[in-house]
Here is the input.
Amino acid sequence: MIEALLAKAKACYLEKDLRGALNYYLEIESIINDSIELLIEIALLYDELGEVKTAINYYEKALLIDSDDARCYYGMATIYDNLKQTEKAIAYYKEAIRLEPNYYEAHFFLANIYDENKKVMLAIYYYEKVIAINPKYFYAYLNLGSIYESLNENDKALNLFLKAEEINQNNHLLYFNFGVVYNKFNETDLAIESYKKSLLLSTNYAYTYLNLAIIYKDKFHDYHKAIEIYTEGIKHHPEADVLFYNRACCYALSGENKKAIKDLQSAIKLYRDLYKYMLIDEELNELRQSPNFYDYFNFN
Here is the structure.
């Protein structure tokens, strides 16, 4: 009977019927309630369904059977992590690691918390732990490289991105990061190639359009090409204030004042603080001298 219920639960899960799968697992629990594997499976399902308090209760039930099961601490850590209860998440990730030192997922998400909270050295330490345990963990290289790039240790960053590329050539953020580093090295052709490859893989990151267009604007003074890139980016990201603002700058530098003003209006409506920056932006010096310029920005 239990095997039949398990088969039905797994079939429901494969069909993305999470509630149906849960109901079968709960039926099994009414028959056997001392299986840690079953309790963890139920906890995972409750978590997927967004019922996190019940999920935690099931992890705690499982710990009553085996208080040293690292999976339970890891599962609770991920819940608290998603809830932004950082201190609890850190404590549970660390307990999972204490019990299972090679639990590389726990190391990774602990590193990620430290990364997000600007605790750079701790983030580096735990990302390096991930790589030592699992040298094929792509995102550890990507995230660690991003940290080194932010610290302007670009040789280290590039080396890590190259190692990441050996594992996965289909991640748009990797090629975005290549673009950033190559641009810092003044390897303009490689930067452009990297940003273009990133966009071929995904159009979902507005800053790829931004950075690529800035190269054409700042290095080649090719405002037409930059405008073309910003326009394409805006098609995919109509709420990206930074794309409207920077296209406005290109229009202003090209003497297309009406289009520049229209884009500035769009940008400032999306993000009001851009108004203050507009008042001091050197690229808009001539535009600000045009008749009735400030009248266009009365949003009251």
About this structure: The longest helix spans residues 18-31.
